[in-house]
Fold each of these.
Amino acid sequence: MPVSTEAPRCSEFARSIGVLPPGSGLFLERVILVAVPLPWPKPALKHEMLAPLSPLVAGSVVISRLFAMEPNSARSDVEVYERSGATTEVHRWQLAETDDLTSAITAIAGCPIGSLGALPLAKVACPTVSPTFLVCTQGSHDSCCGTSGVALADEIEATRPEFVVRRVSHTGGHRFSPTFLSFPEGRMWAFADIELVDRIGAGTVSSHDVSNHARGWWGAKVGPAQVAECAVRAERAGAGFTEPHIEPIEGNDGTPASHFRVTSDDTSWDVHVRVKRAIPSIACETAGGLPAKPGREFAWSIERI
């Protein structure tokens, strides 16, 4: 913990103690973005536009998360990113004046996987998913996201016009700022910079990138299962991404699984995950980093079968 005379930013502190991010991503089948004017409250889901939508998304037939998206005249009112094996389908809608946002989200939340294209909404044509980055920029939630997150979003938009950027509300893990969720792979990343963005966009991430910057793939459950998937992804760095099968192997004593068999492209690995250390998630720019929340950092060993 920082000493009482210090008040560092949470991401600066996490970097200073060398926190490894694998295991801290989101486990989702859909991400739903709604264009919401700034400013956003903390939490953003208390915004008057989102408050009636949040319970609808929470009760969705698929595992979903709702985020605010900073509006832009060239963007859609509603965007949905849906997991489809190893890739992502994206759906975008511009709502007409006669369309009701609550009705639209109700319809989206009630759609099974693979059925969004049949909704009776004014859909915007969606080509093959370009490299897309949902960057957490919500400064009202955390100053790290409001500074380094915004700076990274600005840089991508200014220098990488071939990439899609969405400035979104808090995605969790502000101690890892700048943090984003990238598509089409559907992976969360920590301590990002423009060079990492380029490698993700080109499909040339390294084993070091995955081990030190990947928070988790959105098709793996948060915690040890995400760590196991990241361990295998690091082994396969540079290879095209294919959907992994993650099988937990429980111990004889009934304790939660820390041993996983991960299979990708007909090759399997045994991954043993352990808690490396307990780490605090400090409050940003407060004396001594208080109040702090408890957290875990994972380590792993891996063996190809």
Note: The CA atoms of residues 84 and 114 lie 8 Å apart.
Amino acid sequence: MQKTVSIPLQFSGRGLHSGEYVTMTVNSAPINYGIKFNRTDCPDDTATIEAAWDQVELSPLCTKLVNYHGISVKTVEHLLAAFAGCGVTNAHITVDGPELPILDGSARPFAFEFVRNGLVQQDAPLKAIRILKEVAYQLGDAWAKLTPSDTLWMSFHIAFDEKVIGVQDKSLCLSNGSFVRELCDSRTFCSNKDVEAMWANGLALGGTLENAVVVDGNEVLSPGGLRHKDEAVRHKMLDALGDLCLAGAPIVGHYVGHCAGHATTNGLLRALFADPSAFDYVEVDAAMNATLPGVNVSLDEFPLVA
């Protein structure tokens, strides 16, 4: 069944890249509405932005959506990951600026509030995208692929020069609350040596040690250190789940990412939808529903974080 939030939920804070203070409200939405953003600081007839793979404009370090009027909203991936991980399929989001609040740099604040306040099962069938054959996309040394699977699996490989990150690999089945247990609290990360370069290019203006994991060689500069030894690869998986949410329906397949970022995952979705023989839409029955992310999620499954 389709699902939406039960009550309006408000989140406020600075955007990671713009540094602007913004307020965002996640509202319930009717059956078959999908996920849409509305910029309250823009004229009403231009302000709606659909969360869809073909609305993505390539942007460094985040996912940016742009509508046909040129109105955009960026850093949407953590909220979208929370939607996907909690099974939310319909939501109307209002925001009074060009970027969503970064909060603690993870998806946990969003997902926790969704579950704490309750989600509404809507009396309408849910369709999923079932992967029928392998589809791949490569961007430089990075690549990603989708292969057939009975449920959503995700495997990821990263390699960074910083010793505290290094090479990390992780594979997860994202059924039955795995997202909230394993991924949702993992924060965005960066190297200390890259911070000044990002600032010089107008990026990460709202970044602090409180909303990102900043590393320097063997050292973690953010207070409290890492939430997981492999927090970096977990966050990359979180980002990928958020970007896959732009497919417009849950994906039943195995996503494999090799040093993949937002552009790689979006390129993979474009390759998928360019090949109608690679997938089909299936109505979710009880057996498939039991394997989807967001089923049987409770507050007890959220990791405790500092």
Note: The longest strand covers residues 21-27.
